[in-house]
């Protein structure tokens, strides 16, 4: 019988790797604290309608990538393909709009599911970190979200990144743009892929985001959103750039960025690495002023981003970032004999209750093998306990780094190590 393996596009995080995740997560939490953001956790599953209305039924995510099924009650349920729609649903359902604005919210290590070809740093089940700032329209809010992401990369030692920004405008200026785009694309319709032909009438801007090579060639000379911005959108985008300039952030204006989700309006951005191949975006987001209203709330502006944890790990490794070593066991008790083993077991519990990591032999090893094991797990100290030590009430404590030894009373071990 063949061994059962993890499904294609999923990956285990082993103990040898999990400390890297802990390091990244602790930096994310600390940065969110500095920016005044609070964590909001949402379910892995949502009603499918949330993504049809929020993400958009002409997007690749909805058309090709969602894991959708019918539950035993006949309801259409979808595994979460992105973080923002669920956050907005939770914002409305929990009436967070009654809290002081802006609401700065984040999600961390959130499982996300997309049925697509697995690629470097992008799995069918991957995990995301994201920020959503809700309730403020000012350009400095857009810039603050972007700068939070850039600050995180800096703290984690990620180099060779470039911030790409664009504006895709509001529904008002989007109408003029869509008209010009249809006029340009109309003559190419027979040459485009089936998906893009279906988007032509309902949402032609989605064609700009197509990954098919022929469609990519067609849209190279298509009109760009930035040339059709209304006065308010143009002024907002200029203010975003001014905020980034004031903070010393480097960026390029990239009119090809439209993002793959329908809820975006105005500012959109991607942070791109040149070290992980063609799929170089390690963070992406933008403003979505209409999503809350679309999902049944009031007209409340918002801006945010999502960042794949696996993609971030890949770019950190490409940058040869040195992760801190996981903390080693503070004390290892080596014991020989039934009574000494029982005492070692009790002492390990005592140290743990005092907040000191401790371990002892679970495998009935020889005395010599126990010391070898202490070396393997890089224990900071070893304490040897035998019948003689029990009788005297004292033990020899050895510091493994330099071999220094000292004699201590057993009753005083917890206070010594503390």
Radius of gyration, Cα only, in angstroms?
28 Å
State the CATH topology of the largest domain: BirA Bifunctional Protein, domain 2
Corresponding CATH superfamily of the largest domain: Bira Bifunctional Protein, Domain 2
Q: How much β-strand is present in the residues?
A: 15-25%
Unreliable sequence segments? none
Strand sequence of the main sheet, in spatial order? 1-5-6-11-10-9-7-8
Report the strand count: 16
| Average pLDDT, all residues | 93
Characterize the biggest β-sheet: 8 strands, mixed
In helices, the fraction of residues equals 25-40%
Give the distance, in angstroms, between the N- and C-terminal Cα atoms. Answer: 52 Å
Shape: elongated
The helix/strand class is alpha+beta
Looking at the overall shape, the CATH architecture of the largest domain is: 2-Layer Sandwich
Tell me the count of domains.
2
Instruction: Please give the CATH class of the largest domain.
Output: Alpha Beta
- DSSP helical segment count: 16
Describe the protein in words.
This protein is an alpha+beta fold and 418 residues long. The chain has two domains: 15-170 and 230-318, BirA Bifunctional Protein, domain 2; 331-417, Rossmann fold. 39% of the residues lie in helices and 21% in strands. It is built from 16 helices and 16 strands. The strands form three sheets. It has an eight-stranded mixed β-sheet with strand order 1-5-6-11-10-9-7-8. The chain has a five-stranded mixed β-sheet with strand order 13-12-14-15-16, sandwiched between helices. Strands 2-4-3 form a three-stranded antiparallel β-sheet. A hairpin with a 7-residue loop joins strand 9 (267-273) and strand 10 (281-287). Helix 1 runs antiparallel to helix 5 and helix 5 runs parallel beside helix 10. It is elongated, with a radius of gyration of 28 Å. The model has no long low-confidence stretch (mean pLDDT 93).
